[in-house]
Amino acid sequence: MSGPLLNLISQGVRLWLYSVCDELQHLNLQLEGSALAMLGGNLEGAKLEAKGVVFQSLAIATVELKSEPISFDLTQLLKGKDLKLNKRFRIHGKVEFSGEGLCKSLANPHWLSFSNNLATILFGNSKLKSYEISENKLTLYSGQGESINCGLEIIDGELWLTPITAANSKAIQVPLDSAIRLEELSINQQHLTLSGSSIVSVKSAELK
Question: pLDDT tier at 183 (50, 70, 90 boundaries)?
Answer without folding.
Answer: very high
